[in-house]
Structure to design on (242 residues):
């Protein structure tokens, strides 16, 4: 089992969300979005570090409202940069020497099943670079600034990238050592240095919360996520712990 350091970027401004306050502080049930996301990784035996990358503007709110939670969970807080890529790079410099893989996962993707994480970790350990993604099913239109269709885009080979995106540590560090100004995700940087990135089948329930509607959708689907089968006791005296 590879040792994994996890980076959770949460420093974005969230301008498209439209609600009051930062979307990462919005609640799904009784928990803020980012806490649900963190719990998908902090409870794993293969994760040795979890970094939450926040903006300077949110630092006081995190300390006041969530400092105790983050300390209990063993989460390390890192200040982000002007872009997502700069934020990831700030955390990447703090990854432990013993980490073999680095996982980057959006703070606003709280609907992540441990089975999907297992699958992408396993593939990254085998190939050095792997992401969750899902085939595009809708009809895609390229639209002009005047809101007129320019063309219909063939969707046959198109997949929508998701997170987690997981890479061998040395590969991701090499990718981030170059120009990161045009990076839309981590896989793009790894592609740019010539390393192939494997795709692991994701799921449409792996919602990225961008708008208020996405928050409602995440709340609706989170209870339906696939869960690992419970481990069966190996003997008659292991069913109860006293």
């Amino acid at each position: 089992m590879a040792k994994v350091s996890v980076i959770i970027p949460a420093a974005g401004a969230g301008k498209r969300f439209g609600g009051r306050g930062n979307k990462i502080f919005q609640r799904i049930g009784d928990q803020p979005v980012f806490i649900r996301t963190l719990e998908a990784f902090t409870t794993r035996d293969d994760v040795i570090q979890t970094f939450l990358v926040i903006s300077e503007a949110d630092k006081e709110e995190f300390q006041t409202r969530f400092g105790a939670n983050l300390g209990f969970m063993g989460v390390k807080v890192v200040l982000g940069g002007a872009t997502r890529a700069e934020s990831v790079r700030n955390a990447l410099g703090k990854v432990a020497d013993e980490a073999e893989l680095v996982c980057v996962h959006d703070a606003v993707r709280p609907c992540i099943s441990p089975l999907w994480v297992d699958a992408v970790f396993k593939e990254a350990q085998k190939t050095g670079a792997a992401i969750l993604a899902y085939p595009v099913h809708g009809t895609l239109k390229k639209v002009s600034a005047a809101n007129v269709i320019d063309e219909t885009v063939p969707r046959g080979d198109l997949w929508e990238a998701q997170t987690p995106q997981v890479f061998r540590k040395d590969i991701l560090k090499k990718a981030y050592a170059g120009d990161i100004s045009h990076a839309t995700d981590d896989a793009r940087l790894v592609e740019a240095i010539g390393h192939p990135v494997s795709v692991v089948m994701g799921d449409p329930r792996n919602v990225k919360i961008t708008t208020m509607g996405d928050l409602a959708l995440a709340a609706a689907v989170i209870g339906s996520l696939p869960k690992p089968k419970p481990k069966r006791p190996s003997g008659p005296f292991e069913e109860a712990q006293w």
Remarks:
- The mean pLDDT is 91.
- The chain is about 30% helix and 25% strand.
- The chain has one domain: 4-226.
